[in-house]
Amino acid sequence: MSLFNVYPLYNITPVSAKDVYVYDEKGIEYLDLYGGHAVISIGHAHPKYVEAITSQVAKLGFYSNAIRNPLQEELADRLEAVSGCKDYQLFLCNSGAEANENALKLASFKTEKSRVIAFKNGFHGRTSAAVAVTDSKSIIAPINAQQKVTILDLNDIESVKTELEKGDVCAVIIEFIQGVGGLDQATKEFFEQVDVLCKANNTLFLADEVQSGYGRSGKFFAFQHYNVTPDIISIAKGMGNGFPIGGILIHPSIEAKFGMLGTTFGGNHLACAAGLSVLNVIHDDFLMDNVQTISEYFFKIAETIPQIKKIKGKGLMLGLEFDFEVSDLRKKLIYEYQIFTGGASNKKVLRILPPLTVQKKHINQFFEALVNALDA
Predict the structure, then answer these.
(1) What is residue 342's DSSP assignment?
(2) C-alpha–C-alpha distance, residues 340 and 352, integer Å
(3) Both 25 and 162 in a single domain?
(4) pLDDT, tens digit, for every residue of 78-120?
(5) Residue 113 belongs to some domain of the structure
(6) PROSITE patterns attached here (predicted)?
(7) Which of 284, 299, 330 is the last residue of a domain?
(8) What is the pTM assigned to this prediction?
């Protein structure tokens, strides 16, 4: 049986990894500055992460949500402490798309409305409602397009106000740093005014922190750079350091009812063990401090390279924008300099999403290779 061919692949086969490095079947070492789409938060094969999963699977890997799982309660308490999101409630699932799907469903339940406002170049996942609010027509099938969605420009607060005042919008969903779209951000004033308008119009404010969360922006969540209070926060990618886990943090004003959300695999014992180890390492190893230190160092060097037209993003969710498409540059970096980087729907942006354990020496290695590649 052949694989369903939906991924354009680089001709590299990783077989092992350690911290910020990946090794292929030939033993070639690659510097990972992409982290598998920002998934690797605490470094590949972190010993505390490996021990947590190994220990848990030896005892109990899975049972359904029909029974008590104290690890879920422990993860919720730990997440509240590390994130600062006091009194929010946690619902666990398996991925970012599933997190956003449940966030949108919950907003519709709460408000008894069905239309959603999202934004140009936004990406929220590939499940039914999540892909409908994603600004990419090529991945939206007709069955998804039945959803009631209005896509607006970032920073166009008057359009947001006009649409919300129509009274049929259940949710506004937004990335505080766009990932796939190319690291664009709205202004502080825009984010904060949207929050106010949502609260005035019985509309839930959904913060998509799937990629920008878990310390990647320099704060635990990217929305924490602003004076806003999301009603629902979606999380995934860095949450499990590679183990599939996602979830939503739900404001205490939203009441749970039996059966309104559900999942078979979400919040399983192995996922919770992985999630707890990630939070412990982020806290114990001061990784958010490291994010800020390395980010400042990255910006300082990037500003000296004339071919870079714009430096985008925050923390270690970064983009370098050029005046040419970067596909060939990415190939050169991976095949000639053994460095993984990422692309975006903005074809001129090179995405940098390393493990939060990355050090200055790795940034030096990247910029030395980038300058040589650009000169070549």
Answers:
(1) B
(2) 9
(3) no
(4) 999 999 999 999 999 999 999 999 999 999 999 999 999 999 9
(5) yes
(6) AA_TRANSFER_CLASS_3
(7) 284
(8) 0.96
